[in-house]
Design goal:
21 strands; 22 helices; 22% strand; eight-stranded antiparallel beta sheet; alpha/beta; six-stranded mixed beta sheet
């Protein structure tokens, strides 16, 4: 089974949010404190290895609400481990309900009060119900000062709902095995050795698979277990060691019996690592812990769990250097290869969102203290548009997915515009405002970049050359202005330079410029960036420094521009500077609004 949808209402910073997940990789991005951790926390409440608390603290409720709920939807229902139910000798009470998802919020006691009756199903009947289900819902409802309601409901293909009177945690783990790794790595919570956790099952399976010679040694040498333990875990140690060696340089890795548990010896097994300092994995940094937990979970799923598994990692990049991040990103992708597995990660790192499908991405923002979701769905674009978007996702522009505002340019303007923001505002002005300057690689991509980024909840500015008026600008104009532009071009046998139009046509074409400007699309009247150079100065620089190529020249100019020489090198006291000021004013206002909201 896979997680297909998550519905959250009034939980922490989330007032009302529905998140859609796809098979395979899912990526959640957003600024700090936008609500990403609350999404992972909500998932953990319903399918984590700990049973939900009986009651919740005040801080878990959104603002003044007195009730929150989390509903997790699972799909691909025929893919589950039937072992628990096949060995379950008791009957299960199940309510038959008409199709109304509001019943997901009712407890069995409330259904009894509504005079719904339950019937008792054998395990084989329960298996049949599950296999014929369209979706499975795990619901958690918390009301202040009341006990938590935690229920399991099937949406069957016959159009009815089937709600369980109660269900064991083993049944839930037979649907989906998950490893949920929060940003604060706590091995006591994540590598728990018991009969129900995936890690406990991994250690127990290896332990119980020991050779007869090891059993004899174990009974003979009960006081000196290190050598025997190493023998038992030799294969797992070697396999784990190979998979992490490329990310963690270490001298020694071993599983060791640390605690004397008297019975169930395997529960005392701990991991020790010598990466220059020989100590328990518990004592290592978050980056190493992340890598080890992920590799252990991958090994467990590969060797002992043949059904769907979900790896959920919050900020996998924490305390890892860039090369190790790239390795870890590939390892997470390997978890998905040739399987029905699923991953959900939250990240601030570009290494985890390169070469991906845009439908895998969710952007979380926060406004007025409330988390909001932005996601592109299958129905949002045509097939041809998705083909263009797939080209975009393979570029090195992944920083734009983390931004709130994106300025799109064709090429070398990126360097000059960035420098102008630094000169006229502040070196960190764009960073303070979470702005990315992005080269689209060709004017035909402006429209699809804009549509995609706005669908992801971002504000978009376009800074483009005059020749966009030939064709590309039509994507942004209403019909009356398209017709006006065509009439102007018709009267002039095509598109002239702006200064070559007569006064009447200039007035007409300015209507188009003004409309575009109001929609944050800034078209350069003079032509392109090079038409704003003071050529007598720039030509000397080109000769003195042996410069060629538009972007190389623009980049070099940006490195020597300052407040004293900018007007000598560039002719920008015109629409160029007007556009820069419009963006500065817009971002200043946005920053003021954000500050006010934070103070509130």
């Amino acid at each position: 089974m896979i997680i297909s949808k998550l519905k959250i209402r009034n939980y922490k910073s989330i007032e009302n949010m529905t998140l859609e997940f796809v098979e395979g990789k899912n990526i959640i991005v957003g600024q700090n404190n936008s609500g990403k951790s609350n999404i992972i926390s909500a998932i953990n409440l319903v399918i984590g290895e700990k049973y939900p608390p009986k009651r919740f603290d005040e801080k878990n409720y959104f603002k003044n609400s007195d009730t929150f709920y989390v509903i997790l939807e699972l799909s691909n229902c025929n893919d589950f481990d039937k072992t628990f139910l096949e060995n379950y000798n008791k009957k299960t009470g199940i309510y038959l309900l008409p199709y109304d998802l509001n019943y997901l919020l009712n407890s069995p006691d409330e259904l009894d009060e509504l005079q719904f009756s339950s019937s008792w199903k054998s395990s084989s009947q329960v298996i049949e119900l599950i296999e014929s289900s369209k979706h499975i819902y795990i619901s958690l409802i918390s009301r202040k000062n009341e006990d938590t309601i935690y229920t399991l409901t099937l949406e069957n293909n016959d159009g009815n709902l089937y709600k369980f009177k109660f269900f064991a945690s083993e049944l839930l783990s037979s649907f989906i095995t998950s490893a949920i790794i929060p940003s604060e790595r706590n091995l006591k919570n994540e590598l728990v050795v018991n009969n129900y956790s995936w890690y406990g099952k991994l250690i127990k399976s290896v332990w119980e698979g020991m050779e007869n010679e090891d059993k004899i040694l174990l009974s003979q040498h009960n006081q000196n277990l290190t050598e025997v333990t190493n023998s038992i875990f030799e294969n797992l140690t070697n396999e784990l060691g190979k998979s992490v060696k490329d990310a963690i340089p270490y001298n020694k890795l071993e599983f060791k019996l640390i605690q004397d548990t008297k019975t169930d010896y395997y529960k005392g097994i701990k991991i020790l690592l010598d990466d220059g300092y020989y100590s328990l994995l518990d004592d290592k940094g978050s980056g190493i812990k992340s890598l080890m937990i992920i590799e252990l979970f991958k090994l467990y799923c590969k060797k002992y769990h043949k059904y769907s598994s979900c790896l959920i990692v919050e900020e996998p990049e924490v305390f890892l250097h860039p090369q190790a991040r790239s390795v870890l990103s590939k390892k997470i992708d390997q978890f998905l290869t040739g399987s029905n597995n699923q991953t959900i990660i939250t990240t601030h790192s570009e290494q985890f969102i390169s070469n991906f499908d845009i439908k895998q991405l969710t952007f979380i923002s926060k406004k007025d203290g409330k988390s909001e979701k932005h996601k592109i769905l299958e129905t949002d674009f045509t097939e041809r548009e998705f083909q263009k978007i797939n080209i975009i996702t393979k570029t090195e522009n992944s920083e734009m997915y983390f931004a709130d505002t994106v300025i799109l340019v064709e090429g070398g303007e990126k360097y000059i515009i960035k420098k102008m923001f630094e000169i006229y505002k502040d070196e960190l002005f764009l960073d303070y405002n979470n702005v990315s300057l992005i080269k689209v690689g060709g004017k035909s991509f402006f429209n699809i970049y804009k549509k995609m980024l706005e669908k992801l909840g971002k504000k978009v500015f376009i800074f483009a050359d005059y020749d966009n008026l030939k064709n590309e600008v039509n994507d942004f104009l209403p019909d009356n202005l398209k017709n006006l532009l065509n009439q102007i071009k018709g009267r002039n046998s095509g598109l002239k330079k702006f200064d070559d139009f007569n006064d009447t046509d200039k007035v007409e074409i300015d209507k188009i410029f003004n409309y575009l400007k109001q929609n944050n699309i800034f078209i350069l009247h003079n032509g392109e960036l090079e038409d704003y150079y003071n050529h007598s100065k720039i030509d000397i620089l080109k000769q003195e420094n042996n410069l060629s190529g538009k972007e190389i020249i623009a980049h070099y100019i940006s490195t020597i521009l300052n407040s004293e020489n900018i007007n000598d090198m560039l002719n920008i006291n015109n629409d160029f500077m007007e556009y820069i000021n419009l963006m500065i004013n817009d971002l200043d206002n946005k920053l003021d609004e954000t500050t006010e909201n934070n103070l509130e």
